[in-house]
Amino acid sequence: MTALAQDLPTQAALERAPDSSDATVTFSKRVDEVQLVFTVTDKKGRFVDEVRMEDFRLLDNDRPPERVFSFQQRTELPLQVALLIDISSSVHSRFKFEQKSAVSFLKNILRPGIDSASVISFGSGVRQVQPMTQDISELETAIHHLRAYGNTALYNAIVLGTTNFGSQVESDSARKVMIILTDGSDTASQVSENAAVTAVAQSGAMVVVIDASGYPPINNDGQAFLKHITTMSGGIILRATGNAELSKALKSVEKGLRTQYALSYKPSDFQTDGSYRPIRVTLQKPKWIAHCRAGYYARQR
Fold it and tell me: What is this structure's pTM?
């Protein structure tokens, strides 16, 4: 198995429901219409772009959907990217390459007039360097103006990052992705780990972590947090201990975003009672792995 595939969460890990105090997901369309965006990889972490409706089974609250409204391969839904860049002192030696790679990534993935992105930096403090925009030049300028210093306020950055979604496109009309470039655990936040998890769950964003903390990964609280927040959001962790791996990881994310699937459906026995409804996607081919959010809370009237 390649280094990039080491931390891809399994579907079994996605089945655990978060604490009801951690998440409330609502929908901007019909109360009983759910928009699910997911990706599929093989066991080596390579993204699969050939999945058809007959290749997978969806269970919402342990039951098949009452009706499927649409299924899209390589979905064209607008993309919103919140790019969170670690500027703590520990990244100083490779920071220029990280900046160059981040700019190249945004240029390659954002479609003019359709997709948008924002940039947030986090060291000892957190700063919204560039609000959500479709202007690549503004994003490039923001990234090149960053300087590495200080500690790591990761949780603060995640909470701020989730506020970047939904301002330009309705909640269920966009693919929301938070990409975090970091090499360490949180050392400076004023908000808690639970607050960061709650914010992600409420936003409905998928979290992708480009982890430069070293290989093999250290088994600590920071790694446990990164694995939890990516798993519950349907995201992944990619290792990037050197410049070549960072470039490879970002290219992998690019491919993943181009091969996302979007499913719109009506759940069976849907009740507007605020209850938690777990989601499970299983694939016919045992070598394929689905990555989707673990579930949602039904909207209350």
Answer: 0.83
